[in-house]
Structures are given as structure tokens and as C-alpha cells.
């Protein structure tokens, strides 16, 4: 298999129009502390809340926002509750990838008609600020997609939540929007889920990488990227490939105990500023040796940023036929070596940093070796 990219003249007809990512919901063991982490370390603002004080007796949720990004941090009180059952199985992780649509009811029924399995049927939620419709269907592992239409709602987030601000004054770090979300699935399941997105949601295959593209001396993986028509939603799907040692996908599947969201890529217009602030706030990143930069200018050509600043921040650079991109990856953001973040700045490029794969995977393998999981 060779790397291939969807050509510009190929058209994509979505099953239902998607306007963007509405929110990403994390199920965690302690929502209050996790929400503070996102405020302090990543510069998110607390904008809404639900819990016992608002009449919700079994769970708490904090809604955090920066730019066009909304994260919902949810926990529960009873160990029997599905939220904490999810955490017991997977650790802190992504449960919901919510999609912003014009008509949630129609979108849900079209997805079910095309073969999706229902997570929950359409619900209308109302309060003094209007109403929203929301519905859900299942994707890989225990992850679900919800479809949300909020054309008739003016509140802070959705009915059931109240507007809330924190005493802590966060400083935005320049995050703009969700660039893409990556899912890890078991060996042999990648094509099944690519077909799901093609058949159910009308997505098209954007690019493929095989184990020759994404490999080191010790491990490899395969990946296919699907995208909707306007390109706002991009889902790379990874599966492990045969290697001498355990791949990062194998490690994830072992510790997450099944398929799930591996990382969320967040876009910024000034990655040097963003990463410098994150490092000062205590966020740890994967390390790439200095010799990576010895030949990078020969490979990517002229760029606007100062190379010494990129080297100092350990930021990776790659180029495609439409421009270049800058990217860096955090270490896992919880104790289990599972979910992490990618910070990305695109200067024309539409690709995913193929030229950085070897350096990135070697840095991941160094961390795996330190954990005894390589």
C-alpha cells in the first residue's frame, strides 16, 4: 500500500451537513480537579456547569471554552454510574465527539438508516433560553457521536446547565478550533470503521498511510484519514501493524482496554507562543533530539518562523504541496499512557506531518521504554 491523498476534484456528499465540532466530552474520575487543569495548563475558561446545585443529582459537568473549542468534563458520584464504570474500564478519556448540525433529528435518523447503532434517540431539551435537539449513535469502542442543533438556543451551553465563571483567571493560549481527532482501533478493524464513516456519514477517504510510512526499527502502525465535505471534521483511524516490539497503538489498546480516542489536535496561529506558555504552565511534551533540526531546512525549505525558536520549543516541521505545518505532541495527560494532545499550526498545509513520523514515533518509543511497555 502506498500513501495516497484525495485529489481536489473528487467531491464529497455528506449524509447530513456538519458545521463543525460542537464539543468533546471527557469522562473523568474527578471533574472539578480536571477542569482546573484545563483552565490553568491550557488556558480554557469555565463557561457553564451542572451538578447537585442545579438539580442534577448523579453527575457533575464543567464546560470549558477557548476559541471555537468546547470541552465538557464529566464525573459521577456512584461507582455504579455509567460514567465511573467507563472511567474504571478506560481511565480518563473521551466519551463523546459531538457534531454541530442544523437538524439533529434528521441527522440521527439518516445515520441509523445507513447502518449506525443508536446510542440514544432524539431528545428535546428546553429552558428559558430556548431549546436544542440532541441525539447519539455509536462509533468505535465505547465512543459515541452526538448530533446537536442549537439554532433556537441562546444559553451558555444547553438546557440543564447554568452559566458559571471561575475565581481562577485563566489566560488563553491561542487555541482556535479542533483540527482533527484520532481514533485507535484493534488490528483488522481500521477498514471497518473507515467504511462506517463512508457509508453512514458520507465521508471520503482523505489519505492513507501504511506500515512503511509509519514505522521505526521496532514498531509500526497503519492509518487512514476520513473527512467530511467541508473539511471541518477529520478523523484519522489507526490500527497496529506487525513489528519487532509493541507499537504505541498496542500500548494504548492495552491500557485503555479497547478502542478509543487517542488524541485531539488543536489548532493555533502561533505555535511558538502557545507551546512556550503550555511549558510554563507545566505541560510536558514528547522530546525530539536536536539532530532532527540538522537537515529539516533542506527538507521543508523556507518558513516564516525562526528555526532557533522552533528548536528551543522542540516543534516539528513538515511541508506538502500546499504549504507547511508545525506540530508538537504532549505526553499523556493522565496516568495511563492513553489520551494526549497535538498542537498544530497550518500555514497552507492540509497534510498530517508524514515527514515527522519517524522522529515522532522514536520519541514515543523512548517513553514506552521508560514505562517498560515497548
Give an overview in words.
It is a single chain. The chain has 374 residues and is an alpha+beta fold. It folds into 2 domains: 20-163, 2,3-Dihydroxybiphenyl 1,2-Dioxygenase, domain 1; 173-371, Roll (2,3-Dihydroxybiphenyl 1,2-Dioxygenase, domain 1), CATH 3.10.180. The protein is built from 9 helices and 18 strands. Strand 4 and strand 5 form a beta hairpin. Residues 1-9 have low confidence and may be disordered.
State the main characteristics.
374 residues; alpha+beta; 2,3-Dihydroxybiphenyl 1,2-Dioxygenase, domain 1; 9-stranded mixed sheet; 9 helices
What is the secondary structure topology, with strand pairs?
Elements: E1 4-5, E2 20-27, H1 31-42, E3 45-50, E4 59-66, E5 69-76, H2 82-90, E6 93-100, H3 104-113, E7 118-127, E8 130-138, E9 144-149, E10 162-163, E11 175-184, H4 190-201, E12 204-209, E13 220-227, E14 234-241, H5 248-256, E15 260-268, H6 271-280, H7 296-300, H8 307-313, E16 316-320, E17 323-329, E18 340-347, H9 357-371
Parallel strand pairs: 2-5, 6-9, 11-14, 15-18
Antiparallel strand pairs: 1-12, 2-6, 3-4, 3-10, 4-5, 7-8, 8-9, 11-15, 12-13, 13-14, 16-17, 17-18
Structure summary:
By secondary structure, this protein is of the alpha+beta class.
